[in-house]
Specification:
single chain, about 290 residues, mainly alpha, about 65% helix, about 0% strand, globular
């Protein structure tokens, strides 16, 4: 019970700080800007749009790049040696302290993903269809594709992919995307925590940014190489809404079981290494706000 209280305290410290607040503000501004063409379409046709639109935002390279740079930014408080964490370590011991920090990364990641989904649908407030069906708006836009008159007349930052509509219901797609993105963000945060215990914080941030920059290479290689690289770039998996849309005859994503298994095992292995490492390092507490 004491450990869970500590996880809650650790999570609150990670959530209620200026870095997270700034990132959330950017998310809501970005969500509002990206939604404008579709919002005008909804108003013009006077039809509500499905609540499950966040997965399609994540399938936008521009949106995803902004999102991941924000994730790296809010996790730049590694290795969590601010004075606010000192009392927790004294009470819990080093191993439980480390597990509590990793749990806090997971909680913060989940909250950020939920708020991102909220930022995507908030601009459509009052015109949202709360059902487990894709609805007329998304079916129409997805079936018309990027060559439609609507697409030609508007600068679209993301599109609705028709192939995914027949494979998943809105509830299924949203659940998979939220859980998958939470694990991806936890993976990045845990990776930064691990690296910061062996090297300087700047190196942890730099390696995390490399994961993000690999998105560019995945998007700009031949379809066959694209398919191979996709197995090794977890940051790309957030574009799950594209998983049923082939490129030059090749599917873009690894199997869903592979993605979840990879992330869960990788987070588990890194957590074990972190717990071993914290037993032998010297803690240099910092007078720094999170």
């Amino acid at each position: 019970m004491r450990f869970f209280k500590y996880v809650r305290a650790s999570s609150l410290i990670k959530i209620f700080n200026s870095k997270v607040g700034l990132f959330i503000l950017i998310l809501f501004i970005t969500g509002f800007r990206y939604s404008q063409p579709y919002l005008e379409f909804v108003r013009e046709k006077n039809y509500p749009i499905s609540w499950c639109i966040a997965p399609f935002y994540f399938a936008s390279f521009g949106f995803l790049a902004i999102f991941y740079f924000g994730i790296v930014y809010i996790n730049s408080d590694v290795p969590f040696m601010q004075h606010s964490n000192m009392y927790q370590l004294i009470r819990m011991g080093r191993r439980r302290w480390a597990l509590g920090q990793i749990s806090g990364i997971f909680v913060r990641s989940f909250l950020i993903i939920v708020l991102t989904a909220l930022a995507c649908i908030l601009p459509f407030a009052g015109k949202i269809e709360w059902s487990n069906d894709w609805g007329k708006v998304i079916y129409t836009l997805a079936s018309q594709g990027p060559i439609s008159e609507f697409a030609r007349n508007n600068s679209l930052d993301f599109t609705f992919n028709y192939e995914i509509l027949g494979s998943y219901t809105p509830l299924q797609l949203m659940f998979i995307t939220l859980f998958l993105c939470t694990l991806i963000c936890t993976f990045l945060g845990t990776w930064m925590f691990l690296i910061s215990l062996f090297a300087e914080r700047v190196f942890a941030v730099s390696t995390a940014l490399m994961f993000v920059l690999l998105l560019f290479f995945v998007h700009n290689v031949h379809a066959k190489m694209h398919q191979i690289l996709a197995y090794f770039v977890p940051a790309y998996w957030a574009e799950f809404a594209l998983s049923e849309t082939p490129i030059s005859g090749f599917y873009r994503m690894p199997p869903i079981t592979y993605m979840f298994a990879f992330l869960i095992i990788a987070i588990g292995v890194m957590s074990v290494i972190i717990c071993v490492r914290v037993k032998s390092i010297e803690f240099n507490w910092e007078n720094e706000d999170i």
